[in-house]
């Protein structure tokens, strides 16, 4: 536990603080000099907790992962909710738990089955991490989810936040959490003037998240923090008039709720031109499993690669060459089927999808022929699934 005096000394960084080494225990200096931050003393904490929990008792959403405190359910939901909205996660969570109701069921599953149920959520390393961690829990802990946060963090895909969420929500342990909603909420409460995602901000917010925890009822308290951030303390146009803790909020008291937290530098996107090729032979198409280090490792896809050429003739030559490099076969490119535009992390991708006819060659390892109807059983990327659906529809019409 960080002492209250030490926490207050942490709360203010030196002018233009950039990392944790610039935090001082002396007088606090705000980058916004006309802004004052609340003193988080015992009275403040008691009032904050009481008002927050009273609000949560009235506004708690009925979410499928809140039906029990089973650590497995909490874990799956927290991983799914990383960088994904609640409404998107709901049906995925329900399908996933129906297929894998226990950690032992998940551990025994084939990776392709796990990825197929994850399809569309993106960030597939989360699914692979869940699967690998489930195997480790079964092998090393007899299928019982560990309760110690240090042990949790030794599992694949579980970091400090996820471990804290599981420990506090499932086991009611006094562990702090810090994710997108609570980062925004705490930064506004403290009127923190710098980027809260930098190391100085993270150190301060983790310390604050720990300091404000109650001694009991931690599970509901941490869920209430996330709920308030999600429903009221929103990224834009926060509903401060509806907020139960606005009187405790430094940003609101200083009229800075629309300016804080300070935004991180905008991500610069890179435009990329790619091609996907549907190679056909005797009513079958070629698919390949993406390897380690590729964008969708473990998923299946049509031959896909970056296109550097311009002009129909040069593009055709590049398609022939790169299909052969990926699959081992020579194919004759045909018509452009469709063009899709989508984004992946910092890339804005234009994907041209072509048909092609098999000419010669033998398939490489992790590449195979498949009938269009069988595509439904394979885990594909979002664009791969759209292309597969197009192929299946065209087959059904013939």
From TrEMBL:
Keywords recorded for this protein, A-Z: 4Fe-4S, DNA damage, DNA repair, Glycosidase, Hydrolase, Iron, Iron-sulfur, Metal-binding
InterPro entries assigned: A/G_AdeGlyc_MutY (IPR005760), DNA_glycosylase (IPR011257), Endonuclease-III-like_CS2 (IPR004036), Endonuclease3_FeS-loop_motif (IPR003651), HhH-GPD_domain (IPR003265), HhH_base_excis_C (IPR023170), MIG/MutY (IPR044298), MutY_C (IPR029119)
SMART domains (UniProt xref): ENDO3c (SM00478), FES (SM00525)
Gene Ontology biological process: base-excision repair; mismatch repair
Cofactor(s) the record lists: [4Fe-4S] cluster
Listed Pfam families: HhH-GPD, NUDIX_4
Broad enzyme group: hydrolase
GO molecular function per UniProt: 4 iron, 4 sulfur cluster binding; 8-oxo-7,8-dihydroguanine DNA N-glycosylase activity; adenine/guanine mispair binding; metal ion binding; oxidized purine DNA binding; purine-specific mismatch base pair DNA N-glycosylase activity
Record note on cofactor: Binds 1 [4Fe-4S] cluster.
Reaction equations catalysed: Hydrolyzes free adenine bases from 7,8-dihydro-8-oxoguanine:adenine mismatched double-stranded DNA, leaving an apurinic site
Highest taxon of source: Bacteria
Protein EC: 3.2.2.31
Positions of the HhH-GPD domain: 80-231
Family: Belongs to the Nth/MutY family.
Protein role: Adenine glycosylase active on G-A mispairs. MutY also corrects error-prone DNA synthesis past GO lesions which are due to the oxidatively damaged form of guanine: 7,8-dihydro-8-oxoguanine (8-oxo-dGTP).
Protein name, per record: Adenine DNA glycosylase
Upper classification of the organism: Bacteria, Pseudomonadati, Planctomycetota, Planctomycetia, Pirellulales
């Amino acid at each position: 536990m960080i002492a209250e005096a030490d926490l207050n000394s942490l709360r203010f960084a030196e002018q233009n603080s950039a990392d944790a080494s610039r935090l001082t225990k002396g007088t606090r200096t705000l980058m916004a000099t006309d802004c004052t931050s609340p003193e988080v003393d015992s009275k403040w904490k008691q009032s904050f907790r009481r008002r927050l929990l009273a609000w949560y008792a009235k506004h708690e959403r009925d979410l499928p992962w809140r039906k029990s405190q089973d650590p497995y359910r909490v874990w799956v939901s927290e991983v799914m909710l990383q960088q994904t909205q609640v409404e998107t996660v709901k049906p995925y969570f329900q399908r996933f738990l129906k297929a894998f109701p226990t950690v032992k069921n998940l551990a025994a599953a084939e990776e392709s089955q796990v990825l197929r149920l994850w399809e569309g959520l993106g960030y597939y390393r989360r699914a692979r991490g869940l699967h690998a961690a489930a195997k480790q829990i079964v092998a090393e802990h007899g299928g019982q989810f560990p309760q110690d946060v240090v042990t949790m963090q030794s599992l694949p895909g579980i970091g400090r936040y996820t471990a804290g969420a599981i420990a506090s929500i499932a086991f009611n342990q006094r562990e702090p959490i810090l994710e997108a909603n609570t980062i925004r909420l705490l930064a506004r409460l403290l009127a923190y003037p710098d980027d809260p995602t930098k190391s100085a901000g993270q150190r301060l917010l983790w310390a604050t998240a720990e300091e404000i925890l109650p001694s009991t009822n931690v599970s509901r308290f941490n869920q209430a923090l996330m709920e308030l951030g999600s429903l009221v303390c929103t990224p834009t146009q926060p509903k401060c008039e509806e907020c139960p803790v606005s009187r405790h909020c430094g940003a609101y008291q200083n009229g800075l709720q629309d300016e804080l937290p300070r935004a991180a530098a905008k991500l610069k996107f890179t435009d990329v031109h790619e091609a996907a090729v549907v190679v056909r032979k005797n009513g079958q198409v070629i698919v390949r499993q993406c390897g380690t280090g590729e964008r969708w490792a473990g998923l299946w896809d049509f031959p896909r690669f970056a296109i550097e050429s311009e002009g129909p003739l040069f593009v055709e030559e590049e398609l022939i060459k790169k299909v052969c490099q990926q699959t081992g076969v020579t194919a004759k490119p045909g018509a452009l089927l469709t063009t899709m535009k989508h984004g992946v992390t910092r890339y804005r991708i234009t994907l041209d999808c072509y048909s092609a006819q098999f000419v010669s060659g033998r398939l490489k390892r992790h590449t195979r022929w498949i009938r269009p109807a069988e595509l439904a059983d394979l885990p594909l990327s979002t664009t791969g699934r759209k292309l597969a659906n197009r192929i299946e529809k065209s087959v059904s019409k013939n």
